[in-house]
From TrEMBL:
<protein>
    <submittedName>
        <fullName>FKBP-type peptidylprolyl isomerase</fullName>
    </submittedName>
</protein>
<dbReference type="InterPro" id="IPR046357">
    <property type="entry name" value="PPIase_dom_sf"/>
</dbReference>
<keyword id="KW-0413">Isomerase</keyword>
<dbReference type="InterPro" id="IPR028974">
    <property type="entry name" value="TSP_type-3_rpt"/>
</dbReference>
<dbReference type="GO" id="GO:0005509">
    <property type="term" value="F:calcium ion binding"/>
</dbReference>
<dbReference type="GO" id="GO:0003755">
    <property type="term" value="F:peptidyl-prolyl cis-trans isomerase activity"/>
</dbReference>
Length: 326
């Protein structure tokens, strides 16, 4: 496939992804300076973390396990703030967007564990329970107060959400967590345990920014407590290799970069990362045919069993090695 067709394919996928992230109910207000708004957002997030305390239900095996509440510390209160508590160390992830570096604070209440525990990459789908709040400052009788106002809660998710179709903050934090285990009950319900659970504090630039969504005002930082129950592996380019296995540097993240940025997940350097590229090594042979066990059949190798070119190759699997067809 030539580069034009590959680029067209990538753009089509990007359009689909972008359309999934928009809501018909969104309303946009005048655009603010990204750096100035981020300075306001991060100040409000840090103030919230310093003036509120957190309570976590640690009740393994129960439906309310890892439920989280946030409460304002009253004047003279002795509760330990989110900022100062040490049970769940505050972690950060830096994200480049809009020509500035955003900081996402997050807490890992539990990483997630089990015999089949796994982490999503940032383009997979997640089954996650969550509660979302937006941060809002209001002034009454000359007194300004920062509040967290709940806008949504989903304790029993019934469908998977694609991390390419939700806000950027989710896609950056969920790969830091793992699934747990689950069992089916006689009544047809499912019970989850040992799942990953956490809290993320997202600046508006990595959320909805100037678009209001439902009851969420524009330019609102968001706070999510969440539980990662299960994941679905995606295959964005339909080449038969799940996208997470096309994460060349194995960091859990894949992106489409500008042309002047070297992409570690782009084998042939054509500007189309492998997870969107139907011909990963640029040898004009489609990846989905290179991983077939027999060219006359449709059966494909499991990823670990995809052969290399042997002594004539460079040790890479044959769909990543253009010398296999030279």
């Amino acid at each position: 496939m030539n580069k034009f067709l590959k680029t067209f394919s990538m753009l089509a996928i990007i359009v689909i992804i972008a359309s999934c992230s928009k809501s018909d109910s969104s309303n946009e207000v005048p655009l603010r300076d990204y750096a100035e708004q981020y300075a306001t957002d991060i100040a409000n997030i840090e103030e919230f973390m310093q003036t509120h305390y957190m309570e976590v239900v640690n009740n393994p095996g129960a439906d309310d396990d890892m439920d989280v509440t946030f409460t304002k510390i009253p004047d003279g209160g002795t509760q330990v703030s989110i900022w100062n508590q040490t049970d769940y160390p505050i972690q950060t992830r830096l994200v480049e967007q809009n020509d500035i570096t955003y900081k996402i604070y997050y807490l890992q209440l539990r990483e997630g564990s089990g015999p089949e525990s796994k982490s999503p990459c940032n383009v997979d789908q997640v089954l996650a329970g969550y509660r979302g709040e937006y941060l809002y400052k209001s002034t009454v009788d000359g007194v300004t107060e920062l509040k967290g106002i709940q806008f949504e809660e989903n304790k029993n998710p019934q469908s998977f959400l694609s991390l390419t179709g939700v806000i950027r903050g989710w896609a950056e934090i969920f790969p830091k967590f793992k699934t747990g285990v689950y069992t089916e009950n006689p009544d047809g319900t499912v019970s989850y345990s040992d799942f990953g659970a956490g809290v993320m504090f997202i600046p508006s630039g990595l959320a909805y920014y100037r678009s209001s969504q439902g009851t969420i005002p524009s330019y609102s930082p968001l706070v999510f407590s969440f539980k990662l129950y299960e994941i679905n592996r995606a295959d964005q380019d339909g080449d038969g290799i799940p996208s997470y296995l096309e994460d060349i540097n194995n960091d859990g993240y894949m992106y489409v970069f500008d042309a002047d940025v070297t992409n570690p997940d782009d084998t042939d350097g054509d500007g189309v990362p492998d997870f969107l590229d139907t011909d990963d090594d640029g040898d004009q042979f489609l990846t989905r045919y290179e991983i077939r066990i027999n060219v006359e059949e449709t059966a494909i190798y499991s990823f670990d069993d995809i052969p290399t070119c042997g002594s004539n190759g460079n040790g890479k699997k044959r769909h990543l090695d253009p010398s296999c067809h030279n």
